Structures are given as C-alpha cells and as structure tokens.
Amino acid sequence: LSLSGSSFAQGWLEYTNQADYFGVNFPAEPEIEEFTYSSEFNAVFPGRRYAVQVGANSYVATVVDFTDSARIHSEMEKTEAASGPANWLYDQRASVARAAREFRQRGGEVTYDAWSHLDRVEGHQIQITNADGSRTFAGIYLNGNRHRLHVVEATVPPGAPPPIQFQQSLYFLDDE
C-alpha cells in the first residue's frame, strides 16, 4: 500500500506519495494508473502515473521504479555484447535522456531544452509548442538515492499561462 496525503494550498493540493518518494502540487486529487516501462536496454520496470485533467489542462507525474534494476537485468535474456556488470546502472542513467528524446519525437516546436536540477537531483527540462498551439512543459529527474525516474508533464491550451505551480512544485522525499 502506498501512503499519500494532501493539503489545500491556494486551491491546489499538495500531493505527497511516500512510496514513490515525491510530492507535487495538483489542482485536484490525481487518478493513479500502474503501468510497465520498457527501458533503453529493454528491461521492464514498474511505474505509476498520477494524472489530473481540468478542462483542457492536463497534469501528469510519472514515476518509474528502478529499485530491482540489478536483479531484473541479471534475469534478462541478452547477448554477450549486451551483458555487462553495470548495465543495470547505465540503464537508469539513460532514462532521463530517453524520456527527453521521447518528448522531442512527439513533434511540435521545441522551445526550451536544457539540463536542470531540483533539490540537487539532476535532470532535464523541455518545453514544446504542439501542432494545435497547446504547450507542453516537462521536467525529467532521476533520483538515484531512491532509484526513481520522476517525470512531470503539463499541457495547457494556446494562450494559457504556463503551469508553473505544477512544474516547479516537484520535490523529493526520503525515508523520514
């Protein structure tokens, strides 16, 4: 079971999830969907999406759990060339670049694309103006201390203000 909680802050919820070691502001309680994530090295990891749709605005926090990465990689069938003692670690490190590439491949005009960090956790931020004029703002961070990839993504309609309250509110939790 995951422990989560929320409190009201200026009409938004401060959502925290201890199981996935993060907190973020949402405009409402998110719906949670479990999924499997296929990594750069074709390993399969568990993940969860926390999503809120308010009108034309969408807010999604995605978390991929790499906790069992070494075991998952050791149990995979792979060629000798694809085998290596640290592939499980390289797979985690590649996850930020992979997620950024997947955003770029969606199409639209990339208007911002740069290294970033939050709470001393390295990552990447990308902003895209989509073909319909809507804008997508994403932050991608690999919290190596907790073996989690965190991706926050918000899309707003043309002319809407940037979703800064969501995008900039991501923070990381520890065991305490």
What topology emerges from the helices and strands here?
Blueprint: E1 4-5, E2 8-9, E3 12-17, E4 22-26, E5 31-38, E6 44-54, E7 57-65, H1 69-75, H2 87-105, E8 109-118, E9 121-129, E10 135-143, E11 148-156, H3 164-167, E12 171-172
Antiparallel strand pairs: 1-3, 2-3, 3-4, 4-12, 5-6, 6-7, 7-11, 8-9, 9-10, 10-11
Would you kindly provide a written description of the structure presented here, covering whatever features stand out?
This protein is of the alpha+beta class and 176 residues long. It contains three helices and twelve strands. The protein has helices spanning 69-75, 87-105, 164-167; strands at 4-5, 8-9, 12-17, 22-26, 31-38, 44-54, 57-65, 109-118, 121-129, 135-143, 148-156, 171-172. The protein has a seven-stranded antiparallel beta sheet with strand order 5-6-7-11-10-9-8, covered by helices on one side. Strands 1, 2, 3, 4 and 12 form a five-stranded antiparallel beta sheet that branches. Helix 1 crosses helix 2 (87-105).
Key attributes of the depicted protein:
globular, disordered N terminus, alpha+beta, 7-stranded antiparallel beta sheet, 12 strands, 5-stranded antiparallel beta sheet
Total beta strands: 12
The gross shape turns out to be globular
Order of helices and strands: EEEEEEEHHEEEEHE
Unreliable spans: 1-10
Q: Summarize the main sheet.
A: 7 strands, antiparallel
| Alpha-beta classification | alpha+beta
Oligomer: single chain
What amount of the residues lies in strands? over 45%
Count of DSSP-assigned helices: 3
As a whole number of angstroms, the C-alpha radius of gyration is: 17 Å
In percent, how helical is the residue content?
A: 10-25%
Distance between the termini: 17 Å
Mean pLDDT: 91
